[in-house]
Amino acid sequence: MAVYACMFAAYLKNQKKVNMDNNTFKVNDKVSKVGGDYTFDGTIVSIFPKLSGATRVVVEDDRGVLHVYSEKNLKIRD
Q1: Contact between residue 72 and residue 32 where contact means Cβ atoms under 8 Å apart
Q2: How would you write the pLDDT of the chain (78 residues) with one tens digit per residue?
């Protein structure tokens, strides 16, 4: 449990470095994964910063499967 407390403290310390208002995507956007050797379509359910300050996007498909991507791996679905 102490490890999670330390991770959360580090997150809070670094949180001010991330401006979530500048994200390309929003929660509830319909997106598709681009590139690579598989496809994944779904809805954005969360956007959060890593401790490094990089942004990650959680996408859920119609089966309830969750994948985490960087913004560069996603595009808005038509």
Answers
A1: no
A2: 666 666 666 655 554 444 455 668 999 999 999 999 999 999 999 999 999 999 999 999 999 999 999 999 999 997
Structural domain span for residue 66 = 2-76
DSSP 19-66: -GGG-S--TT-EEEE-SSS---EEEEEEEEE-TTS-EEEEEE-TT--E
How many domains does the chain divide into? 1
- Report the CATH number that the domain containing residue 18 is assigned in CATH: 2.30.30.60
Asked if 67 contacts 57 with a C-beta cutoff of 8 angstroms, the reply is no
